[in-house]
Design goal:
With 761 residues, the chain is of the alpha+beta class. The chain contains 25 helices and 21 strands. Helices cover 44% and strands 14% of the residues. The strands form 7 sheets. Strands 15, 16, 17, 18, 19 and 20 form a 6-stranded mixed sheet that branches. A 4-stranded antiparallel sheet has the order 4-5-6-7, with no helix packed on it. A 3-stranded antiparallel sheet has the order 11-12-13, with no helix packed on it. Strand 6 and strand 7 form a beta hairpin.
């Protein structure tokens, strides 16, 4: 056997391999400086056919080059920096016959992207010039070249860096499981995997840095928002879930979780304090009463206000434990403590209470007296105590339902009987069809705590009254059909419940229920009930009298604040008050209209008397109403300026309130937003807009926007469950307040996954 050179042919036999000027036996490492050109080449453990070429650090498949830095040949590493031209290369013990010739292909640019350390380009069989990139780990293929266009490498990078490759995910999972106790393989059977020459860390979601503190904070927010008990962190099912999601997460105990919850509360309180410090107007409170199975009670205080951008906000301020929540002394102390806590002692405007107190007048008077000594109340406290509109609707509705509770029981039992089997439902449907009942309503049972469902149940049953009577004659097992007199009482009840139902829906339909909306509903309901008590049918009039007696008390207590609120609506002003009072009071309407007008002017005077600093920023830039024209300079009209000054003194201009009331009404358009109107007219009415801001922010209902008026749990005195009653008062407050604040908190910023791979040597 002769030694090969650049122009000679050579044959390599047995276990020998010719490289450069040396003979290498067995599977030794070959590193030469010549080119081998042949039809077959072994790469790693695979045989690649075709006219393939290795040029410097590149390998050509077909007509394309692949970047390689390392090549595995057999069990050894071969660094290929040469081109070998021959007929055959043997792996192992095969015979190789080679002929050395100079290179015949042009050198191409080396691929420098890191993705080529993870991908190999392979030709697509049957499609000339088309190639796909194959992942070296999971063997998934991706588009690369169509023969005329290169697809690029961005989608290849995403496969690696975003954790899409299942092999990379598997490797990371094994590393996480073995980070504390050493590295194992084969599902922990003890076979350690030999470290590779290079490792890569990818900055994607699959490789995101784990943060114990952040995860604990998110867990606390989950518990707060969904009312989970704190001891959920000690339940085996929960710990198993967290371990499966993130083995490195250390589940906290109950005491630690309390600390996390309180930290969320403190952070939310700091943010709310900052918002309230820039509040331009006053704040109005809603007072909720809570009882427990023990002798203690809680008072919830929520504040409603309009910010500098004329956006309405309602936020929970405190949830305080008091020994006797129904005592005006205890409630007064709770309110004063809350105002001090939030630095708003001089900013209280009104408070809204439920109507459960039997002696509301005495209660309100005592509460007003207690707080007026510590706070500067507007209009001498005439508007200070407001009764909840949602609560009065619920109270009146439950009175109506209670007046016919016997009939309602029969109807519930009748529906239960029909729904007990499909055969009975079919029989009832046949009867309704025979009687040609045109109703499309569906019989369904009500939810006793939501009076609107009871109203809808009665309404549907009324349509099928004849079917119930017929069913009783056909089925001996059914004997709950109401009598004709009972159906008449149901009809009367539904007639008046419809007023309450429609009124509640009108309020709930408003996306931004400012105080001006409630006058429209209240005066129409007062008028309907006043007329109903004179109904000629005794059944109708008796139900109407009970309703009117309760609602009339609400109207007498709150019609002043309701009327002043609607006057602040430029679509109605005093005109709607005059019109509605003429319908309700008749010839005595003028007396009641004057009460509203006098209170409106007195309240405006209180705002005029306030210092400029407390009236808002708008006053600084707004032109004064009573200033004379500025003297001209150098135009020879000094006498004219003096004449204007004399007119201004002898004929003072109208106040902002008078200007506003004298202007024409704003057209009533469907999508009118009253807060936007006042925002645009702030410079025109700087003082009056301040007054309008506070009035429109009065919470006429304790039900917040988006809530249901019909549920008894949303108004009145509520019961705190035994679990929360067992917690420390400060934790109860943290849970209630933080839940409210988190609903309005901005979502956490999304952490965009990185697309670069960082090489770790």
């Amino acid at each position: 056997m002769g030694e090969p050179n650049g122009i000679e042919n050579a044959m390599v036999h047995d276990n020998e391999m010719a490289v450069g000027d040396e003979m290498i036996h067995g599977n030794e490492m070959a590193d030469g400086s010549e080119m081998i050109h042949g039809d077959e080449m072994v790469q790693g453990n695979e045989m690649v056919h075709g006219d393939e070429m290795i040029h410097d650090d590149e390998m050509i498949h077909g007509n394309e080059m692949i970047q390689v830095e390392d090549m595995i040949h057999g069990n050894e590493m071969i660094h290929v920096n040469d081109m070998v031209n021959g007929d055959e290369m043997a792996n192992g013990h095969e015979l190789v016959s080679a002929e050395v010739t100079p290179p015949t292909l042009t050198r191409r640019r080396r691929k420098k992207s890191l993705v080529w350390e993870h991908f190999t380009i392979e030709p697509v069989p049957g499609e000339r010039g088309c190639q796909r990139a194959c992942c070296n780990l999971c063997k998934a293929t991706f588009a690369y070249s169509s023969g005329t266009k290169i697809a690029g490498t961005s989608h290849l990078k995403r496969h690696i860096t975003l954790g899409s490759c299942p092999m990379i995910k598997n490797q990371e999972r094994k590393m996480a499981l073995t980070s504390a106790g050493g590295m194992t393989d084969n599902d922990g059977e003890g076979t350690a995997e030999r470290p590779t020459k290079r490792r890569y860390r990818y900055t994607g979601f699959a490789n995101a840095t784990f943060d114990q503190d952040r995860s604990s904070s998110y867990l606390a927010k989950l518990i707060i928002l969904h009312d989970y008990p704190l001891h959920i962190v000690q339940q085996p099912a929960f710990t198993a879930l967290t371990e499966s999601l993130q083995p490195r997460f250390r589940v906290a105990d109950v005491d630690t979780m309390e600390g996390e919850v309180y930290a969320v509360y403190q952070k939310g309180k700091e943010s709310l304090l900052q918002s309230l410090s820039s509040m331009p107007g006053r704040i109005s409170l809603t007072i909720g009463l809570w009882t427990t199975s023990q002798t203690l009670g809680y008072v919830s205080l929520a504040g409603q206000f309009i910010d500098t951008e004329w956006k309405v906000h309602r936020r929970m301020l405190n949830f305080m434990m008091v020994s006797s929540p129904h005592s005006e002394n205890a409630l007064s102390e709770a309110i004063s403590s809350s105002l001090t806590d939030w630095n708003m002692k001089d900013k209280l405007f009104t408070i809204t209470l439920d109507n459960d107190c039997s002696s509301h007048d005495i209660y309100s008077t005592n509460l007003r007296d207690h707080l007026s000594n510590k706070n500067n109340l507007m209009l001498k406290g005439q508007l200070f105590v407001v009764r909840c509109y949602a609560n009065i609707l619920n109270a009146v509705a439950h009175d109506v339902i209670a007046s016919i509770h016997g009939v309602i029981y029969n109807i519930r039992e009748s529906i239960k009987f029909i729904k007990a089997s499909s055969a009975r439902e079919e029989r009832f449907a046949e009867i309704a069809l025979q009687l040609e009942i045109p109703s499309t309503k569906t019989l369904c049972l009500d939810v006793t705590t939501q009076w609107n469902t009871t109203y809808l149940m009665l309404l549907a049953a009324l349509d099928y009254r004849q079917a119930f009577t017929t069913l009783e004659t056909c089925d001996d097992n059914y004997n709950e059909s109401p009598s004709a007199e009972d159906w008449k009482r149901v009809e009367a009840a539904c007639n008046y419940l419809k007023f309450l139902y429609d009124s509640a829906h009108s309020i709930m339909a408003a996306a931004n229920p400012t105080s001006n909306l409630f006058f429209h509903e209240a005066w129409k309901l007062q008028l309907e009930l006043s007329n109903a008590i004179t109904h000629e049918d005794q059944v109708f009039s008796s139900i109407a009298k009970e309703m009117h007696e309760r609602f009339d008390k609400y109207w007498k207590d709150c019609n002043l604040v309701l009327a002043i609120a609607v006057v602040m609506d430029p679509r109605f002003k005093m005109k709607l008050v005059e019109f509605s009072y003429s319908k309700i009071y008749g010839v005595e309407a003028a007396k009641y209209v004057k009460v509203v007008d006098d209170a409106l002017h007195d309240l405006y005077k209180d705002y005029v008397a306030q210092p400029v600093s407390s009236t808002g920023e708008a006053n600084k830039n707004a032109p004064a109403n009573n200033t004379a024209a500025a003297p001209s300079t150098g135009d020879g009209l000094l006498d004219f300026d003096m004449y204007l000054s004399e007119i201004a003194i002898s004929q003072p201009s109208k106040s902002e309130l008078e200007q506003y009331l004298d202007e024409a009404l704003t057209p009533r358009i469907q999508d009118f937003e009253i807060v936007d109107w006042w925002k645009l007219n702030t410079l025109k009415f700087p003082t009056l807009s301040k007054m309008a801001r506070d009035i429109l922010a009065i919470p006429m209902s304790m039900v917040s926007s988006g809530g249901s008026i019909f549920s008894a749990a949303t108004t009145g005195s509520r019961m705190l469950d035994d679990y929360r009653s067992s917690l420390r008062p400060e934790i109860v407050e943290a849970l209630f307040c933080a839940k409210d604040w988190l609903q309005y908190a901005p979502p956490p910023p999304e952490e965009a996954p990185g697309s670069a791979a960082v090489k770790l040597e």
